[in-house]
# Entry
Amino acid sequence: MKKVISLGIMVTLFVGVTNAQQSKKISDNLFGVFFEDISYSADGGLYAELLQNRSFEYSANDKKGWNPLTGWEYTNKGFGYGTVSVETAMPISTNNRHYIELKVEEEGKEGVGLINFGYGGIAIKAGDKYDFSCFIRQISNKSIPIKVILQSKKGEILGESTFNTKSDKWEKYTAVITATKTYDSAQFVLLAKEKSKLALDAISLFPQNTFKNRPNGLRTDLATLIADLHPKFMRFPGGCLVHGDGLGNMYRWKNTIGPIENRLEQRNIWNYHQTAGLGFFEYFQFCEDMGAQPLPILPAAVSCQNSGETWIVGGTGQRALPMAEMQAYIQDVLDLIEYANGLPTTVWGAKRAEAGHPAPFNLKYVGVGNEDKMTPEFKERFEMIYDAVKKTHPEITVVGTVGPAPIGEDFEKGWELANKLSVPIVDEHYYEEPKWFLNNTHRYDNYDRTHSKVYIGEYASRGNSLYNALSEAVFMTSIERNGDVVQMASYAPLLAKLSNISWHPDMIFFSNTKVVPSVNYYVQQLFSTNQGDLYFPNVLVTADTNDSTVGLSCVKDSKTGDQILKIANAGSNAKIVTANLKKLGVSKSALAQKQSLSGKPKEENTIADTSKVIPIVSEVTINNNFTFESPAYSLTIFRIKGTTSIK
Ligand code: AHR
# Structure
């Protein structure tokens, strides 16, 4: 399907020719992150909300056995008595239909109310402050004292606060609880202290300490680890989550903005629930806070081909939005661009400003579709959306999709469509064995440079051993070499909660209290913090040019002038690599930062065995024609400071 590029074209690709060495311009946006709400990445993960099922919207559709009171328990421990019921008659918002009525017949010694167990417990830190908020409507029409408590499993009080209700309309109440002790699995308790009847909804508890102190924000430790990758872009909100399990489950960005109590929660395709608390505003904000380009992926108006798990019986579960709904759907796509970039005087720009961000988010890319089945229904809808975005927003680059695998029918047909429509970039996905990555380092060498560019939106080598990570590293050197075709690449998935893993492997594991970066994380970090925008061929050389276990790359970051050498060795023997830096203008003796990663190839990095394989950083002196013995199973990066290199 791909045509070999003619030599004539190839020569024009090498720009920045110096007297000594040719360089090729490559993407300066190459390595970013893929975020999907999978394996409890958002709710119970990155999104810092501590209470589970805060709006009583869980249901058996999310997961067998779940209901609006999942995660909650009625409490009358001081010998009071009353009842709790789930109601829908007078909700805060039609998007958020369920709430509870708490009836206190007799308050007893302590009051009557509800306990929430968080996502497998609530982790609190002594001295930290927690923002409680809740909507209450007095049904018994009198002010009621409410107590909110953090307690241990045995009932020890670890922090508390009180307030009085004041309205027979839905009203938001807030309080701050200071934790008196560090405790991994606290419980949250809300108690009404007098005979009463109250409606309650959107009961929330957030640490004040979120990433960059954002309200409705992100867990600091996880967000910091992601930000430490210095990703050039962040794709969100998935993955399969985007196109969803059937049309009713498609991700609709408009349902995820505005006050949390008005957002439309729904089933998560990965067999749990999404509160949409981490919605499109929060994603854009996170991108800005990390200095990453936002890359939202929107459904192409069709659902996942695995909807209803029809893949088990070999069918296609893809469903397409009726044509009668397409204009409205296309408007939603255009409105997203206005939401991100429009002036605060525009309808959707005003909503962004209301949320606290009058300045635009500078959206440049919009992805349409996620590894969809290339049916006529998909193609027709993709083309309609693509044409509308191109026409209304020529400044936006649309990212198309070419199926779930590196080859196959959807891949071929996806590329045909992309070529027919001249889609600027298409999204390739591959989850393959390490050997595949080592054997496919020439995949992009012969891609036609006149066709669509490539975003490798999801890839991973099916494991978290050093060997896996190094096979990815070897492949990543070939991504850099082909950085004129491959514009972006992101390992997937990014996060997985250890107690709720839906997909393997992942880049970062976590529990409520710990974060465990895998060795794959460190490979990603070494590449993403050492990106360049110019590629220099033939600077690094090994004796055996056919050795598929070795990956070499030399790039330059024009902003700093730094010259960066990467040597990835996924083989069991040391390899001799010669670096000819003379032609790059490096002086005879130059200082370089050396970053290296090496260790036992097959050890998995889990929470039980936090990897000892972490990058070691040192300063070294190199000369401009040096020979380096790359250890077996290692990645080494030399970063030569700009002052020593040519422009
Ligand atoms: O990354 C996990 C899943 O793999 C994504 O949701 C999907 O796009 C792919 O099949």
About this structure: The first helix runs from residue 7 to 13. The chain has eleven helices and 35 strands. Residues 36, 38, 238-240, 370-371, 404, 429, 458, 492-493, 503 surround alpha-L-arabinofuranose (CB under 6 Å). Residues 3-25+534-640 form a domain with the Immunoglobulin-like fold (CATH 2.60.40.1180).
